[in-house]
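Much of our argument rests on the idea that a fold can be written as discrete symbols. This step matters because it turns folding into a mapping between discrete strings. The record that follows shows the chain in one-letter code together with its fold in token form.
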Amino acid sequence: MPKAAPRALLHTRQVEVHGYKRHDGSYDIEGTLIDVKSTPFENMDRGRVKPGDPIHEMWIRLTVDVDLCVLDVEARNIWGPYNICGDIVPNFKRLIGFSIARGWRKKVKESLGGTQGCTHMVELLGPIATTAFQTTYPDRVKRDKGLKLQEERPALINSCHAYASDSVVVKQRHPKFYTGPDG
């Protein structure tokens, strides 16, 4: 990255997500979101918030199976800008039974959007979902090896540049679904 112009750091958002395999065969995907300011500011419920003290600190744990069905949800709002921010946490249990698959974001928005959820916690579900996919993928591949003969088009095709149906990646990994020029 090129050197930046002189500047002062005002805000830092840290998002961290970890995927774990549990002893019972399911998976825990834990995400945290922490926002801090570099300067003090006044808050109506918390008074003066010092530099480095979180304005937001929240975490979510989804327990999923190998097929990305949500089995359980735990959520915490440790710090929010208002005392009532944590009141919405129980609504995240609504995710139980959802699948992290096509339509996930729409279902999350319908269940937890607007006044039914917390903007920051809902945002955290994005990286949690992709981490869940990455965490469970090797076990899905191992389980499905030899069971599917690639009759169905893999969901990854056309999901990003590398998996464009006319890309070298698809040509090598999924030749049946390759749409680019021969050669």
